[in-house]
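Hi R.,

Here's the chain you asked about this morning:
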Amino acid sequence: KMLMEKGYKVVLFDFTGHGESEGNDYDVTLSKSTKDLEKVIKNTIQKEETVNFLVFSYGAAVLANYLKNQKELKVNKIIMYSPCIFPLESCFLNKESIFGKDIVEAYENGRLIEEGVVVVGAKNFKFSSKMIEDCKDLNLEYYEKKSNDILCLSGSNDVILDTKFNNEFCSKNNIKHIYLNASHALFEEIDKAFEYTIKYLENSY
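And here is the predicted structure, written out as tokens:
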């Protein structure tokens, strides 16, 4: 609502297998989610329009995967909330993540490869081994090139992601990275996150 009040056209959606969208969680892969994003953009964005992206968690990995081959899309700024830009290292195969510990155990004992899926206790859904294979070649080159137009907001109390990977990436590429006193969802300081977002889009940050 805040963005629309500022005159922005806002497109909000759930990936297949997420939220209110159709599909199964165990069918979710980076490639499939990237195709979802491609469909949304083709159906909602006109060629002459400039696009800003506001991505949360896994959405940051999907966006990177989508943008690596984009040459015609006019991207202005990218704002990332708790971005999962190193999904294997920071989350999926990270023992310290409450999301990843079940996946790591099943991956290391071979059950994930054998059965193809594992039930993740923290979120109570099925995670596919195909997702791991899909994420191995994730290319972040676009984010490196676009670094001057990216804002990253992380929660200092995030137990889903190990934010040190984002911190190192942002420091290396001179990306603005702000920590909020919040969890992965940033809900404890979501008003402050929105404030940073508006200011960044309006070049007043």
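One quick note: The radius of gyration is 17 Å.

Cheers,
M.
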